[in-house]
């Protein structure tokens, strides 16, 4: 039940505080830990200096425009701009997407709405009641339930206040974006690229989607490098995404992972992110997917995210994950674990393969189809590839 709480005057409360509980002087070296989502293993604590988190993870404190160079500039911008944006981070606050979204809102003197848990109908009621302007979430796992609610019990909800819905940690597929846009036509849908180790790196270009991959314009601090030499890759060659400058100190109590992920180059500190990518002549980066999830099938490399995008564009598919399953002939074969839409037909493997051929090269086409009641994801909406691999492997034997 809702409870009414008295408002407190901050200055009075601060003055009445006990001196024994006072804080030491603030420092740019004060540390903040963000835990990763555990996509590739156990979650790791990413140690950020406050100054580095502000300028890199939070984009210099400004949700729009150029980052500030000192805190005083931010105060001037806030005073000049006033109120106007209501941020609504919908994933759990343990997730970097929500934590950083909230911090950006607070730093820019804007309004931030938080809630207890992700319940689609309540999320939409909150959007209408609080006049939310910018909502963040994690991929199709969160956007699809909102679509279902808007088509069903929440039909007619006033979402006109929203100008953007952004995703980080997992992409919103082209098909699902189009479905949401048909219901809320004036909203911008943004697939952002970033991580707990880097903050925000860039936003997907308009031509990203099934068959094109996740293409984005990155900031000047981001490169695609050879993970062995840390040198920039040539056009079209795969490498790892890396970022320089204001990056974390490392992983909490994990010197081995820290040494594998962070490095010094040209007098600057860099972080090597988990995604493989290529870069074209115009500097556009195409993110291929996590190197650790790459499927080697017959000597060819297949990244699950691209196949998942193609699967989700099938009219009967509600959600999907892709994993590699050991195969005597191919080494591994591509397996699709699929959750069907409510009331959908029962597509065969051949149906799925025919659909995917319109989006993918032949060697990327799934050779196995497993239909499951529900796709298992983490509480933050991220893919559980260990579960998908286990389900597909058991079904193959």
The CATH architecture category of the largest domain equals 3-Layer(aba) Sandwich
Cα shape? globular
Number of helices: 11
Helical amount: 25-40%
Strand content: 25-35%
Gyration radius (Cα, Å) is 22 Å
> Please, what is the average pLDDT?
88
Secondary-structure-derived class: alpha+beta
Which regions have little confidence, pLDDT < 50, spanning 5+ residues? none
Q: What is the makeup of the main sheet? A: 12 strands, mixed
Count of discrete structural domains: 2
Would you state the CATH class of the largest domain? Alpha Beta
| Secondary structure: number of strands | 20
Task: Note down, in words, how this protein is organized.
By secondary structure, the chain is of the alpha+beta class. The protein has two domains: 29-287, Rossmann fold, CATH 3.40.50; 294-396, GMP Synthetase, Chain A, domain 3, CATH 3.30.300.30. The chain has helices at 10-15, 50-57, 71-81, 96-107, 120-130, 140-151, 174-183, 255-261, 304-312, 349-356, 385-396, and strands spanning 31-35, 45-49, 86-89, 111-112, 134-137, 164-167, 188-195, 199-204, 214-218, 222-225, 239-244, 250-251, 262-265, 268-279, 285-290, 295-297, 300-302, 317-327, 331-340, 368-371. It is globular and about 70 Å long.
């Amino acid at each position: 039940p809702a409870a009414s709480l008295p408002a407190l005057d901050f200055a009075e409360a601060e003055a009445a505080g006990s001196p024994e509980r006072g804080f030491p002087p603030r420092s740019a070296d004060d540390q903040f830990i963000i835990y990763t989502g555990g996509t590739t293993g156990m979650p790791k604590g990413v140690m950020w200096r406050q100054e580095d988190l502000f300028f890199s993870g939070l984009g210099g404190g400004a949700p729009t425009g150029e980052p500030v160079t000192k805190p005083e500039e931010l105060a001037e911008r806030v005073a000049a701009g006033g109120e106007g944006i209501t941020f609504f981070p919908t994933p759990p606050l343990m997730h970097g997407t929500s934590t950083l979204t909230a911090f950006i809102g607070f730093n820019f003197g804007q309004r931030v709405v938080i809630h207890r848990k992700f319940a689609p109908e309540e999320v939409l009621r909150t959007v209408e009641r609080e006049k939310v302007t910018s909502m963040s979430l994690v991929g199709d796992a969160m956007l699809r339930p909102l679509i279902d609610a808007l088509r069903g019990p929440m039909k007619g909800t006033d979402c006109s206040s929203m100008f953007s819905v952004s995703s980080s940690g997992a992409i919103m597929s082209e098909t699902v974006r189009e479905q949401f846009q048909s219901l809320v036509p004036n909203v911008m849908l943004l697939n952002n690229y970033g991580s707990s180790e880097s903050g925000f790196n860039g936003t997907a270009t308009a031509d990203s989607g099934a068959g094109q991959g996740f293409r984005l314009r990155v900031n000047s601090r981001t490169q695609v490098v050879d993970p062995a030499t840390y040198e920039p890759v040539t056009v079209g060659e795969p490498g790892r995404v890396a970022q320089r400058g204001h990056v974390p100190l490392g992983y909490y109590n994990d010197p081995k992972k820290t040494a594998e992920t962070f490095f010094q180059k040209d007098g600057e500190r860099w972080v090597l992110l988990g995604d493989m990518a290529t870069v074209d002549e115009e500097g556009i980066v195409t993110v291929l997917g996590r190197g650790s999830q790459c499927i080697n099938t017959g000597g060819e490399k297949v990244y699950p995210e691209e196949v998942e995008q193609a699967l989700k564009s099938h009219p009967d598919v509600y959600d999907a994950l892709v994993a590699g399953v050991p195969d005597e002939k191919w080494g591994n074969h591509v397996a699709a674990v699929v959750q069907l839409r409510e009331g959908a037909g029962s597509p065969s493997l051949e149906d799925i393969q025919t659909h995917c051929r319109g989006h993918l090269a032949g060697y990327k086409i799934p050779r196995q189809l497993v239909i499951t009641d529900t796709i298992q994801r983490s509480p933050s909406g991220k893919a559980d590839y260990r579960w998908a691999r286990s389900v597909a492997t058991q079904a193959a034997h």
